[in-house]
Amino acid sequence: MSLVVDGVRHDMRLSLGALASLEAQLGVSSLVELVQRFETTQFSSVDVLRVIKAGLVGGGAACDPQSVDHAEIEGGPMAAARAAAELLARAFMVPGG
After folding, report:
1. Half-sphere exposure of 51 (CA within 13 A, CB side)
2. Cα–Cα distance for residue pair 56/63, rounded to 1 Å
3. 58 and 64 in contact (C-beta within 8 Å)?
4. pTM of the predicted model, to two decimals?
5. E strands present in the chain
6. Spatial separation of the C-alpha atoms in residues 2 and 9, rounded to whole Å
7. How many CA atoms does the CB half-sphere of 73 hold within 13 Å?
8. What does the alpha-carbon distance between residue 29 and residue 57 come to, in Å, rounded to a whole number?
9. Per the count of CB atoms within 10 A, which of 54, 70, 94, 96 is most buried?
10. Residue ranges of the chain with pLDDT lower than 50?
11. Contact status, residue 55 vs residue 2, Cβ threshold 8 Å
């Protein structure tokens, strides 16, 4: 999947290492708990930013992930939240399923 940040489209994906790092950064005990935050809309803007940053790094984005804090994301905060939720969902999809 991709996200437009400051007018540039970037591919995003989450590696297993990125998911493990997100667990630690967001203080969740499992990946299921992290996904549930997004499914139940109990996520924060910090959650969204960290997932987006991890996805950009995993996708090989040429931008500095820290610059996302001040970047313009096409579609605004709601689009960023949808992208983060979709990125997490895709991380759990069975290939070909």
Report:
1. 25
2. 8
3. no
4. 0.86
5. 2-5, 8-11
6. 6
7. 22
8. 23
9. 54
10. none
11. no
Query: What is the pLDDT, as a whole number, of residue 97?
Result: 55
Two tokens, residue 91: 């991380």
Distance CA(82)–CA(97), nearest Å, equals 21
> What does each C-alpha distance from 52 to 10, 84, 96 come to in angstroms?
11, 6, 24
Non-local (6+) Cβ contacts of 80 within 8 A are 3, 48, 49, 52, 73
Nearest alpha carbon to residue 5 among 56, 58, 50: 56
Distances (CA, A) of 27 to 22, 32, 34: 8, 12, 9
Using alpha carbons, select from 6, 20, 90, 30 the residue that is nearest to residue 50.
20
The position carrying tokens 């203080």 is 27
